[in-house]
Automatic annotation (TrEMBL):
Name of the molecule in the record: Fe2OG dioxygenase domain-containing protein
PROSITE patterns: FE2OG_OXY (PS51471)
Entry keyword annotation includes ATP-binding: no
Domain Fe2OG dioxygenase: residue ranges: 189-292
Sample GO molecular function, one term: metal ion binding
Organism: Agaricus bisporus var. burnettii (strain JB137-S8 / ATCC MYA-4627 / FGSC 10392) (White button mushroom)
InterPro entries assigned to the protein according to its UniProt record, in alphabetical order: DIOX_N (IPR026992), IPNS-like_FE2OG_OXY (IPR044861), IPNS-like_sf (IPR027443), Oxoglu/Fe-dep_dioxygenase_dom (IPR005123)
Family note: Belongs to the iron/ascorbate-dependent oxidoreductase family.
Classification via Pfam families: 2OG-FeII_Oxy, DIOX_N
Swiss-Prot/TrEMBL keywords: Iron, Metal-binding, Oxidoreductase
């Protein structure tokens, strides 16, 4: 069965998000890697979301970043506004409550965030290729206000992008491509990371004003850490039911975004999701959006276009897509 045919077969509504064990991700045995790729392929075509265990981001790195996020969001608003994302190029820095609107029918997301992109660990001299239209330095809160924040956030960023890089060969195998297919398209770790804080919402909640409104992510895939013990994330299935994706201890969520949907002409699903915090307490999450290098054109991958499945998307570069989505989300509403 070719990719288009198996994509059509998978249109049944899922009822839960599968859990995938990454233990054999770097196995020497190609049969083990091929088996893992089959499991991933099913999740990508049917759900667009899966949990991963044995992801190898150390627990201490997660704990330190979680603690740093809490310290940052606890700062007085005027300190956070010094690094308002509107002052930076490409929306780096602090994103105040209600300033983003992921769902165009919504009235603003009930979350505040801090967003940044690649930079070397302090002390490293590693250089980077040009980011073109997505270029822009990170802006950080002062070290006096949140000691250790920058270092903790960068540790997590580098651990998560290492995980992200190691997933591309698996996605390539899942698409029937050589494992190295994405190597030259993902040299730069074009990944944006966000720390998010969702205040609780109680009583009758207006569907237009929730933690993060219904949306798809924009890059190839997202690596999402959710605070343990708090249900908030929901994923939309083909029957328009919201399926809960609660945090599962020891796992991260991986969800596909628009760049993979565009590259595969919709065979890999960029699934709609949202988050609502009705837990009564604050909730934190950490998404890292891992994309193709910003100058890469998202031409459809061989085998994903046919007469029954004509090209669905206008072709653009990865950076053009991310930039246009950022502008739409933060342009005021
Ligand atoms: O906080 C979450 O669980 C989801 C966040 C999300 O979907 C996003 O930032 O794109
Ligand atoms: Fe998302």
């Amino acid at each position: 069965m070719n990719l288009v045919e198996s994509g059509l077969e998978k249109n049944k509504a899922f009822q839960e998000v599968p859990v995938i064990d990454l233990q054999n991700l770097n196995s020497e045995d190609p049969a083990q890697r091929a088996y893992l790729a089959q499991v991933v392929k099913d999740a990508c075509m049917r759900v667009g979301f899966f949990y991963v265990k044995n992801h190898e981001i150390p627990e201490t790195v997660i704990d330190n970043t979680f603690a740093a996020a809490k310290d940052f969001f606890d700062l007085p608003l005027e300190k956070k506004m010094i690094i308002d994302h509107k002052r930076s190029s490409n929306f780096k820095g602090y994103i105040p409550l209600l300033s983003g609107n992921n769902n165009p029918d919504g009235a603003g997301d009930v979350q505040e965030g801090f967003e940044f992109g690649w930079e070397p660990m302090q002390g490293s001299s590693k250089a980077r290729l040009e980011d073109g239209i997505m270029a822009g330095a990170n802006i950080w809160p002062s070290e006096n206000d949140v000691p250790g924040f920058r270092n903790a956030a960068l540790q997590y960023y580098h651990a998560a992008t290492t995980l992200g890089k190691s997933l591309f060969p698996l996605f390539a195998l899942a698409l029937g491509l050589p494992e190295t297919f994405f190597d030259d398209k993902t040299q730069n770790s074009a990944a944006l990371m966000k720390l998010l804080h969702y205040p609780p919402q109680s009583g009758p909640v207006d569907e237009r004003t929730i933690g993060i409104g219904a949306h798809t992510d924009w890059e190839c895939f997202t690596i999402l850490w959710q605070e343990p013990g708090i249900q908030a994330l929901q994923v939309l299935n083909a029957e328009h039911q919201w399926v809960n994706a609660p945090p599962i201890p020891g796992t991260l969520v991986i969800n596909l975004g628009d760049q993979f949907a565009r590259w595969t002409n919709g065979i890999f699903k960029s699934t709609v999701h949202r988050a609502i915090n009705r837990s009564g307490v604050r909730r934190y999450s950490i998404p890292l959006f891992f994309g193709a290098d910003y100058n890469v054109r998202l031409d459809p991958i061989p085998g994903c276009v046919s007469t029954e499945r004509p090209l669905k998307y206008e072709i653009m570069t990865a950076g053009e897509h991310v930039k246009s989505r950022l502008q739409a989300t933060y342009s005021g509403h």
